[in-house]
Please model this.
Amino acid sequence: MIDETDIRPEKEHYFELLAQQVIKNLQKRKMNGQYVADRNQAVSAVLDMIPPGVVVARGDSLSLEQIGLLPEIIKRDRNKLIDPFRTDGDGHWTDTPEVRERMMRESFFADIMVTSTNAVTLDGKLVSIDGNGNRVAAMIYGPGKLILVAGVNKIVKDVNEALERIHGYAAGVNATRHLLKHNDEIFRDLPCVKTGGCVDCRHEWRICNYTVIIEGALPKHKGRIHVVLVGEELGI
Model:
C-alpha cells in the first residue's frame, strides 16, 4: 500500500537533481563535487580522499559532528588531526584560547582541511561567513586540499539567497549553538541571539565579520576544492 504521508523518495529525487546541477557547475569553476545519499556514505567518501600519513585539519562544522567523521579519522589512526574545537563532556573547550589559536594557525599548513560551507549556489559558488575568519581563510588558501561536507539543505538559488540564508538564519542559530552547547557567554547579547533576526550589528562579538564567496580556482589549483553534497539536512 502506498504511504501518502512519506515523501522521502520524492525529496531524495528532487535534491539529487539539484545536487547534480551544482556538481556540473562546480566543475566549470575548476572545483570537484559528488553526491552521496546519506551521512554514512559521506564519511566513506571523505575517508577515501585522505591518504595515510597526511596531516588533516578541521574547521568548525556542525555537519562534520553530525556525520561522525572525526571519530572515524581518530579510530583509523593514520593521520595527525589538528582540531581546535575539542570539547569535554559538558561542551567546554578542552584547550586554552592560546593553544586553540595556535592550532588554527597550524591548520593553514595541513595537507587536507575538512569543514563545511554555509551555502552552495546552483551555479556552483560557495558562500561562507565567519566571525573569527580562520575557517574561510583556509578555504581560500593554505591547506593542500579542501573537503567540504554540505547537506542538500544548503543549496540555494544564488549569492543573494545565500547571504539572506546566512544572515537571517544560520548565523543566529550558530551563535546560539555556541552559547548553549559550548557555554560561550560572549554570544548571549548578540542581537540575532536575543531577537532571532539580523540587524547588521556592530557588536564586539559579531559572528559575521568575514564574508567569502568562492567563485572558482586558478588552473594550478584545479580540483583543490572537493564538495561532498549529502542527501540529508545537515548543519545549520
